[in-house]
Amino acid sequence: MTNPPGVDPHLQAALTGSLRGGSLGVPAIVFFVVATAAPLAAVLGAGPVVFAFSGVGGPAMYVIAAAVLLLFGVGFAAMSRFATSAGGFAAFAGKGLGRHAGYLMAGVAILAYAGMLIGLFGQFAVFAADLLATLFGWDIPWQLIAFLGVILIGVFGYLDIGLSASILGVLMILEVLILIVFDVVVIAAGGASGVNLDAFALQNVFTPDMGAGLLFAFACFVGFEATVIYGEEAKQPKVTIPRATYASIIVIGVVYTVTMWALGLAYGSDEVQAAAIADPVGFVFAANTQFVGEWSTVIMRVLVVTSLIAVLLAFHNTLSRYLFSLGRARFLSIRLGNTHPRFRSPSVASIVLSVVTALVLVGFVIAQADPFLTIYLWLVGVGTLGVLVLQAAGAAAVIGYFLRHRSSRTNAWSNFIAPALGGLGLVGAIVLAVINFPLLTGITEGPATLLPWLLVIAAAAGLVVGVMRSRGGGIVDLSTGVIQVGVDDELHQ
Q: Model pTM?
C-alpha cells in the first residue's frame, strides 16, 4: 500500500494502528476498575485513617462518596455513548467544553496518572520487601523490587489486553474474597458488642471532623473513571461502558462500606476510633486475626502485595492508553499512537511509560527518598487531587455537551441534574483535598507543600502543547478514511 501524497509514513503507521476492538466485556472492564481501586490495600491503608477522623461513622463516608460518584456516573454513562476514546477525560473535556479544555485536562491526566503509578511502585516495594522478609527471611532492597516491578508490569502492559484482564480478574476476586470472609465472620459472631447500625446514625456521620475522613473515602474510589478509556476495546461500547461504570461504583462502594462496617463492629462503636489511632498499621490485621485467625492474616498479607500488582497493572494500562490516544491525535509524538501488530496493544506507549517510570524512580533513589513517606505519599497525593479535578471536569463536560447537542439529549436527569449534583460533590472533594493536603501526603512544611501547583503547571503545559501542535494543520486519519482531523478533533470529537 502506498502512502497518500504528502503523508509522513510514520504518521500513517501511527494512524492505521488501532486497539483490539471487541476484546473486553463488562466483567473484564469491571476487573480493571476494581483492581485500580485496590480494595484490600485501600481498606488497610485508608480504613484506619477514615475511622481516626470520622469515628464510628467511618463506613458512612464511603456511602456518601459512592452516592456522589453514582450521580456523576449517571451523566458519565450517558455521555460515554458519544465519547469512548482511549483519551478518557481529555476526550470528554474536549467534546463537552471545547478543544482548549481538552488540552488542559490532557496535561492534568498525564501528571495525575503518572503520579499514581510511580507512587504506587514505592508502596509496592515496601510491602513486598516486608512480606519477603517476614515469610522467608530474605532482606531484599526495596529499590531492586521496585525496578523488577516496573519490568513485570511493563511486559504485561505490552502484551494482549486479554491477558491483563485475566490476571486482574483472578487477583481482584481473591482480595475481595478475603474481605468477604472477614465481613461474614465478624457479622455472624456479632462483633465486639453485637450487630448495630451506629455507623449510619446521623449524629455519628455528620461531625466536625468528617471532612478529612470523607476525603480519604473519595480517594479509595480513584480509578472508576477508567471505564471509558477501554471503550475502544469494549464489546458494544455504548452498552458495555455505562453498565461497567455503574457496576464498578456499586461493587467498590459495597465492598468498602460493608468491610468498614464489619471493622467497626469488630472493635465496637466506643472503641474503634481509639484503636485506629493507636495502631493504624495493624488495625485491620489485628481484627482479622481475632475473628478469623492467624492463617487468614498471613493470606491477607500476601494478597496485599498481589493487590498492589493488580493496581499497578491497571494504572499502567490506563496511562498507556492515554498516551496512545494523545499520540494518535498528534498532541504527543505520533509514534505513541502505534499499536503492536499482533497484540493490538499500545506497545510503544507502554514501553515509553515503563522507561519514564524507571527514570523517575532512579531520580528518587539518587535523592535517597523514602519509598513510602516520599515516593508513595507525595505522588499519590498529587495524583488523587488530579483525578478529582478530572472527574469534576468530566461532570462539567457532560452538561456542556448536552447543552450544545440537543439531538443527543435523553432526559434532564441524566443529562443535567445528576451530573450537576455529582459535580458539586466532586468540587467539594477537591476543596477537602486542598485543605487537607498535608493529611493526604504527610507534608506539613517546606517546598513540598507546593506540590498541588504541579497540576496547574501541567494544565498550562497541556494548553501550550495543544495550541502549538494544532498549528501544524490537519492530518489524514487513515483508520476512518481520508478525513482531515487534528489534535482538536481527536480531543473534541
A: 0.84
